[in-house]
Amino acid sequence: MSATAVRPEEQAQILQLVRDFAAEHIAPNAARWDAEKHFARDVIDGLGALGFLGMMVPEAYDGLGLDTLTYLKAIEEISAADASIAVSVAVHNSLPSQMLLRHGTEAQKERWLRPMARGEKLAAFALSEADAGSDAAALRAEARRVDGGWVLNGAKAWVSNGGTADLVLAMLRTDAEGGRRGARGIGCFVVPTDAPGFAAGKPEDKMGLRASNTSAVYFQDLRLPDEHLLGDAGSGFIYALEALDSGRMGIAAQACGIARAALEHACRYASQRRQFDRAIREFEAIQFKLADMATRLAAARALLHEAARHRDAGETVTAWAAMAKLHCSETAMWVATQAVQVFGGYGFMRDYPVERLMRDAKATEIYEGTSEIQRVVIARELLTST
Question: Between the CA of residue 98 and those of 16, 92, 250, what are the distances in Å?
Fold first, then answer.
């Protein structure tokens, strides 16, 4: 599926809009939200009202119809202000929205995708379980077919937006217990969070991204009619892996935003902090550190934008997405660590922003597939094509 590139002047306007919104409504509150573990649903709704919850949804379904490159640049802008807000926006845009767009019926798109694109409903994606993380196909939550629909039972772990979403796209086993079909025995279901039998656990107490709601979700004899099944009953896991290409690029953009914020804070601090009767920016050791931070960030962003160009051309981007997610996340962690070092003792204190950025950066190396899984994916794609 190819995408039409947004004209440069339109892209500039879109990015200026999100930059202004982030500067006014997000950045001034990020430290407080982190400390209080506050999920700012009103801010998410504000972004939705501007169209930023339907960035890659076509205008025919009330979305903005942006290309991948413009979408990723917008995610970076939000992430530079607060990565917690960005992850909620990125998950909604890249996983449930894209799965409904690609595999939903027209009735499903009208019922769920359209209000999601308008920002009226926030969505979550539920694949992992307590015993099925990197080995996601080993999930155990089940959907049992009954007359006219399905009955869902089981639990999902680490669901972003899990306790705040209006809809959850959940992967559950549809094969029989005595005849498991592995990855081919999993279906995807659209689960309204107000359905009887749905419950969300308490928000997880995380190292970073503390203002992003992450929780377990539970299904207990939750009944859904047939129209809540997305596509084929045995293809949900395949749909999820397909959507993860887009999801991983969103996390890569988030990582670039974190790294950018860390670099900007480090540059400002180096100009303000004085030691030995001069600003520390005058010391070559600091200059070289800042130069390396900027160079690695530029390289990471270039790789991500190249992946976006391939996706917008309609190409398969599994390897590109994994490479971008791997390199951008490890760059974010490295740059944030260097920023803490530039701040010295103050960098270790919660009164200064780079401490939070370092904690947030770590998450990007873990979720949507760890760095180790990204290397497995990249190697598999390389060896399959040779």
Answer: 25, 9, 12
Question: What backbone torsions phi and psi does residue 235 show, to the nearest 5 degrees?
Answer: -115, 10
The SS3 of residue 123 is strand
Sign of the dihedral defined by the CA atoms of residues 276, 279, 284, 288, in that order:
positive
CA separation for the pair 246, 190 (Å, rounded): 19
Share of the chain above pLDDT 70, in %: 99
Select which of 24, 368, 372, 381 is catalytic: 368
For residue 20, count other CB atoms closer than 10 A to its CB: 11
| Structure confidence at residue 1 (pLDDT) | 55
Report whether 228 contacts 169 (CB < 8 A). no
| CA–CA distances in Å: residue 230 to residues 19, 56, 109, 112, 324 | 35, 19, 11, 12, 29
Dump pLDDT digits (tens) for 211-238. Answer: 999 999 999 999 999 999 999 999 999 9
Render pLDDT for 332-371 as a digit per residue (tens, 0 to 9). Answer: 999 999 999 999 999 999 999 999 999 999 999 999 999 9
Instruction: Specify which residues 170 forms β-bridges with.
Output: 126, 189
Q: Active-site residue 368, yes or no?
A: yes
Which residues fall within 8 angstroms of residue 60, CB to CB, at 6 or more apart?
none
| Nearest partner of 83 among 261, 304, 258, 337, judged by Cα | 258
Q: In 3D, which of 13, 109, 14 has the Cα closest to residue 62?
A: 109
349 contact partners, CB below 8 Å, separation of at least 6? 355
Q: How far apart are CA 186 and CA 26, in angstroms?
A: 38
Judged against a pLDDT cut of 90, whether residue 177 lies above it is answered with no
Q: How many CB atoms lie within 10 A of CB 282?
A: 13
pLDDT band at residue 273 under the 50/70/90 scheme: very high
Structure tokens at 183: 């990855």
